[in-house]
Design goal:
Length: 208
């Protein structure tokens, strides 16, 4: 007999022949390691981990309870992935979320990974200006300061707006609110995205 939380918040008694505890009957394989959680766009978090040799896919469980486990059902949701990263959206800004990952193989699910946490935010970092620099292949960007920012992260991509999946530029520390991006291809269109600590982003484009 075991207690298991259902999605409607009720607690049900489960009598399952041959099973002495809730959840999976067996666990096998390697637990994913190196799990990280990084705020992305508004209400979103990027979760990444190190691949395991026997995995065919992965499941990310997340919720607002620090002790979430797949067996107890005390998580908000789950997302499947075949790669080693996933973006989870629809989260509540300003609320801390906890994430664990399990690998899935032909023999079942692995033990869960260590827990990573992140707090999505709705604070927008708006680009103020995007101008061509004096030197070829150079762009100068500036943005509105965020009072609580501890660092500004810059991402850029050519031709397509990739947001925070674009190429990362070195971190800029407050109170600085501008950066000169170099090494760009002349005559090409670039998109730029800036995030501050756990802030979301706004993109602009320019053709240097």
């Amino acid at each position: 007999m075991c207690l298991k939380k259902l999605f409607n918040g009720l607690i049900a008694l489960a009598f399952i022949a041959g099973i002495s505890s809730c959840g999976n009957t067996t666990q096998s394989g390697q637990a994913p390691t190196g799990v990280t959680a990084t705020p992305a766009d508004s209400g979103s978090v990027n979760v990444a981990w190190t691949a395991t040799s026997d995995a065919t896919s992965y499941i990310v469980y997340y919720g607002t309870y620090s002790g979430i486990t797949p067996d107890t059902g005390n998580y908000t949701g789950q997302v499947s992935a075949t790669s080693t990263s996933v973006k989870i959206s629809g989260l509540t800004a300003g609320t801390i979320y906890y994430f664990i990952v399990v690998s899935v193989s032909s023999t079942g699910q692995s033990p869960q990974s260590d827990t990573a946490s992140a707090t999505p935010s709705a604070v927008l970092v708006l680009l103020s200006t995007v101008t061509q620099g004096a030197a070829a292949g150079t762009v100068i960007i500036s943005w509105t300061a965020v009072a609580t920012a501890t660092a500004y992260n810059i991402f850029y991509s050519q031709g397509t707006d990739l947001g925070t999946s674009g190429t990362a530029w070195p971190v800029v520390s407050p109170p600085n609110t501008s950066a000169t991006i170099t090494g760009l291809a002349s005559g090409q269109t670039y998109y730029f995205t800036v995030t501050a600590s756990v802030a979301s982003t706004s993109s602009s484009l320019v053709t240097p």
